[in-house]
Amino acid sequence: MPNPFSYGGIVSGNEFCNRIKEVNDLIRAGLNAEKLFIHGERRIGKTSLLRKVINRFSKEDVIPVLINVWKCVDAADFVNACASRFAEAEGASGLLKRIRALFEGLSPAVTVGDDGKPSLTFERKPGRFSTAQLESVLKASWKIADSNRDKQLVVIFDEFQQIRLLGDDRIERILRSVVQERSDIAWFFCGSRAHLIREMFLDSGSPLYRSAGHYPIEAITDEDWIPFIVQRFEATERDIPEAVVRKLLEATSGQPFYTQLLCSSLWDICEPGGTATDSLMDQALDILLERESTTYLTLWNSLPEQSKRMLRAIALENPLESPFSGEVLFRYGFKSPSSAGRAIEYLTHHDLIAGSTIGGYMVIDRFLGIWCRNNFRM
Ligand SMILES: Nc1ncnc2c1ncn2[C@@H]1O[C@H](COP(=O)(O)OP(=O)(O)OP(=O)(O)O)[C@@H](O)[C@H]1O
Ligand SMILES: [Mg+2]
Fold it and tell me: Is-cis flag, bond preceding 2, omega within 30?
């Protein structure tokens, strides 16, 4: 019998737990042509949610365009990704002529895959793209909106924080003007690395400053997880008492990836016809911690001294609400509030900690948090 818990990839269908409110909110925002900056920590379920929303849009009413910035390493990749997705949205009929009209001043090579989807590539020469050409690719969205007035165009960027790493600061500026000039197109900018995303939308010097509303994606609540997890155990001939599920969710704080991972590990060691007990749950967690222990130790050894102290403080307090209070500085041995501040900056920059939804800071990798608590308890 296959393990009913899935982690790592995009989840859909009955593997997708809840998110009813988020799906409805984002569908409404799309139909209202809103500009939204959708953010959440790594592996919280952003891509799965975006895919769900796209699938729920009616084909008669909405043209969704999903552009994944993750694999882009430079502006040329970004241009190619945008062009291909816009061309796909425009459809394959009268392809070349229409695509030429869509991307004025650029001569893309068009290939059509077995699935009938067009893919575009522009010649890759460093520095080849002029500002006008970048504009032309992004303004393809306007042309699609103009030629489909009966439909709502929703442009969605996933892994949007990657834009900052492309080494071309024109992209954000051009995007801002393309996005701001039209109120009839919905734009979703979805990303994880909280500090980068925050810089992009909340720093007054940034081109996209306040250009979009916020939509945070948070962990799934216990009330939604419990029936999902119990049902998956029961459907595969295993029992799990609610108290054990609650304990499991306490360990993962409902973060989707870590919850599925721990459920999967627990299911593996639970015999068919058996019950997932408290002690099996501890064993499942130990197996995962053991598997990661070398990685965690290497990571720990690579941290500067004050960052070690801060990571330990955050793991033990879980969450750490007042990192600069005299009591916390004294208890965890920080030299000064500024050295605690620098440690927070370092850990945030390295994606090890994030602001928690219930206030304060927490360790992003829930199992690293537990590993710290187990090893460095005071
Ligand atoms: N709604 C959900 N129901 C159940 N599990 C989920 C859900 N959303 C996400 N997950 C779990 O979390 C994992 C990561 O999901 P997903 O890739 O959608 O997250 P993400 O936020 O896009 O991650 P990344 O930051 O790596 O891009 C999935 O493989 C799955 O195990
Ligand atoms: Mg993702």
Answer: no
Instruction: Give the amino acid at 133.
Output: Q
| Ligand 2 center from residue 270 Cα (angstroms) | 30
Domains and CATH numbers, the chain: 19-216 (3.40.50.300), 303-378 (1.10.10)
Structural tokens at position 71 = 């694999």
**Amino acid occupying residue 50:** L
- Taking the centre of ligand 1 as the mean of its atom positions, its distance from the CA of residue 8, in whole angstroms, is 7
| Best CA proximity match to 25, nearest among 50, 62, 59 | 50
Tell me the per-residue pLDDT of 221-276, one tens digit each, with 9 for 90 and over. 999 999 999 999 999 999 999 999 999 999 999 999 999 999 999 999 999 999 99
Per-residue buried b or exposed e for 29-46, using 16+ beta carbons within 10 Å of the residue's own CB? bbeebbbbbbbbbebbbb
CA 299 to chain centre: 23
Cut 0.85: pTM above it: yes
What would you measure as the largest C-alpha separation in the chain, in angstroms?
70
Choosing from 42, 56, 260, 262 the residue with most ligand 1 atoms within 8 A of its CB, the one to mutate for a pocket test is: 260
Give CA angle at 102 (100, 108), nearest 5°. 45
